[in-house]
Amino acid sequence: MSKENKEKELKETINEEVVQEEVITESAQESQEEKTDCEKKISDLEAKIAKEKDDYLRLMAEFDNFRRRTSQEKLELVSMASTDTIKGLLPVLDDCERAIAVLKESSDSEAAKEGTELIYGKLTGYLKSKGLEAIEALGKPFDTDLHEAVAQFPVQEEDKKGKVFDVVQTGYTLNGKVIRFAKVVVGI
After folding, report:
1. In angstroms, rounded to a whole number, what is the distance separating the alpha carbons of residues 144 and 159?
2. CB burial class (10 A; 0-12, 13-18, 19+) of residue 183?
3. 143: nearest Cα among 173, 116, 123
4. Alpha carbon distance 131, 136 (integer Å)
């Protein structure tokens, strides 16, 4: 082989190697681009999954709050359903107390006294079983959350000032909520 042929052959080999290197470089670039695209798609999918998970958790928390709130409202509705009925019975309870006070002072029959006390006892027992409680006011410090002052009375003793001196009408709570304030006279 001649020198020219060898040079020609060498040039062809070099050209082939250059072409192969260009192909490998292009292939590497394409591979790098594919890898970048895949990484981008993965990060996008991870972001979507994280968003969906967050939305799901928020929805579950909102539903749990809704369920808790509605069950609380149902309990309050059931416990306070009898409020109007019990409020209607309070004047009857007051009348029974007045009748017992009058009968104790009178010389009427013992049977009338016992009968009235029996009716009063049954009525108060039933109302207590439904959650009704009388507000203890006499001698207690005046509290606007429980008492309604209908009058003020001057007192000489310092320890009686600002305290309930007399109860005009008994107040009541139903399951811890005031349904009628105690009407009281406050010492000043």
Report:
1. 19
2. middle
3. 173
4. 15
The span from the CA of 53 to the CA of 188, in Å, is 65
* DSSP codes of every residue in 116-162: HHHHHHHHHHHHHHTTEEEPP-TTSBP-TTTEEEEEEE--S-GGGTT
Cα 149 to chain center, whole Å? Answer: 33
Tell me how far the alpha carbon of residue 170 is from its chain's centroid: 31
pLDDT digits (tens, 9 = 90+) for 17-74: 777 777 777 777 777 777 888 888 999 999 999 999 999 999 999 999 999 999 999 9
In the chain, where the domains are located: 1-81, 82-130, 133-188
Q: What is the percentage of the chain residues whose pLDDT exceeds 90?
A: 41
Host H or E run for residue 69:
helix 3-80
Tokens of 31: 């591979």
Strands, E assignment, 2-146: 132-134
Residue 95: strand, helix, or coil: helix
Task: Give the SS3 label for residue 171.
Answer: coil
CATH superfamily of 133-188: Head domain of nucleotide exchange factor GrpE (2.30.22.10)
Q: 82 in helix, strand or coil?
A: coil
How far is 188 from 181, CA to CA, in rounded Å? 20
Point out the least confidently predicted range of 46-55, 102-111, 166-175. Answer: 102-111
